[in-house]
Specification:
Layout lengths: L2 H19 L17 E5 L3 H14 L9 E9 L3 E8 L2 E8 L7 H23 L9
Parallel strand pairs: 1-2
Antiparallel strand pairs: 2-3, 3-4
Helix pairs in contact: 2-3
């Protein structure tokens, strides 16, 4: 038997043993579901926009109960003026700010945006769970 043939047989035995040692839950459809938190999309273009996204994303990670929540930062270039940054929550604009052509601190704007986001998330959650606020409003 050649050297390559013995390596091949060894590899086949290792793969077979690894398959035998895996749990059989996959075969019985008892797969454990993995919950993924909310989705934060970055569509920023400028340095200020990227700084805003970075600081915002650090705070976003700490927000609980974001399952099913989609937040998106969209930055549009405004010629000769700077950029316009919009925060969308599930496709609805909830916050808009502007950045000039010169770089400025974004911490205050990030904190304002995160508070508005939390308020909008709470409002969305209240509207979904409250039977008082049904389609008729009664």
């Amino acid at each position: 038997m050649s050297h390559y043939m013995s390596k091949y047989i060894c590899l086949c035995i290792m793969v077979t043993l690894s398959l035998l040692s895996t749990p059989m839950s996959y075969a019985t459809n008892e797969v454990e579901e993995v919950e993924i938190g909310g989705l934060l999309l970055d569509n920023t273009k400028s340095r200020s926009g990227h700084d805003f996204y970075f600081q915002f994303s650090q705070l976003w990670r700490d927000i609980p109960n974001t399952q099913g929540i989609n937040a998106q930062l969209i930055e549009q270039i405004v010629p000769m003026a700077g950029t316009k940054l919009s925060l969308l929550l599930n496709g609805r604009i909830i916050y808009v700010t502007y950045f000039g052509r010169r770089q400025s601190p974004v911490k205050d704007k990030v904190e304002q945006a995160i508070f508005i986001l939390i308020d909008a998330m709470a409002e969305t959650q209240y509207n979904q769970n409250s039977i008082d606020m049904a389609g008729s409003g009664w």
